[in-house]
């Protein structure tokens, strides 16, 4: 299918997760992404995970499918080149003039400076906090209160989630801001300046789940409860071959399926009678979560993971085995075409959300396609990105610089050679 943003050009100047993940998503939907980088790369150019040779898998994965233009952004000429790339109209002005950034302290890239050069600019800025203060996922997460209810129930220490959830949500909010800006410009001719604070993303998300309102109720703040699901029944169990599985029973049907599949119907009925409760009700299951955990624990402990799989598959029980990152990677490598080729050619049609991508610098990579399926297909087709590799090509193509001009800029140190 034709990618929905095919023909659009987005310029980015950023680092770390939120803004680069937004531009990766836009790239997967067909947009051309021009990434303006400092000559030696941004602060995340060497961030872990890294290859044995010390190259950043992190940077290479988040920034693939982009055209990297390396410029000395401390020089006046370099700053003017960056401004020109951002505000260039191209052959179709409706599909250019889109800029995403999270830069701090670069006065030549502020909205008023750029908008003076192009008033219909769609400018999206990712920030730490709404007042302009710093913040990253780890510090923002600490301020939400979530680490205080995460982790083992017996541990008094807060536990940060390993996944940078707020960064990733912020990236998708930036995509929404771009698409909203395009819609406004197409209907009114006006540009937009959208600011998205990482801290706002986190606080808004938690508030919209009702968790802050809950803390003001008579029962007070929620306590840690490990892997138990809040407000219903669900937790982890260990099999006889020392594997772990997650069991959930959120709906009545799921609860009934769990009871019947484990042969606990009579026991559960007796428990309900003895306690005078109805375990088909979520709140009752949650109140009795530790009792129910003890009730089902022997069933899982007596079976291997293969046996659990055989008995629960197709039963209506909502469950999943715990897998390590390595297990997921090895399985994906066996089915995605990793090992030097993509699984499905340039357009990604027919492949799953994880596929292989060969890179001269990073070797065989496992990367994720855009999770939105258009007409049943994941969108992918990106290529590896090398810092500064597209500098001369992009400046010639977008700004009309001649080889002589490019050579002079390289000799003077404004561009990479």
From TrEMBL:
Record's SUPFAM superfamilies?
A: CoA-transferase family III (CaiB/BaiF) (SSF89796)
A matching Pfam family: CoA_transf_3
- MF terms in GO: catalytic activity
Q: What InterPro entries does the record tag this protein with?
A: CoA-transferase_III (IPR050509), CoA-Trfase_fam_III (IPR003673), CoA-Trfase_III_dom3_sf (IPR044855), CoA-Trfase_III_dom_1_sf (IPR023606)
Task: Name the domain of life this protein comes from.
Answer: Bacteria
The protein's matches in PANTHER family, at most eight in alphabetical order, are given as:
ALPHA-METHYLACYL-COA RACEMASE (PTHR48228:SF5), SUCCINYL-COA--D-CITRAMALATE COA-TRANSFERASE (PTHR48228)
Would you tell me the protein name for this molecule?
Answer: Putative dehydratase/racemase
Provide the species name.
Answer: Brevibacterium yomogidense
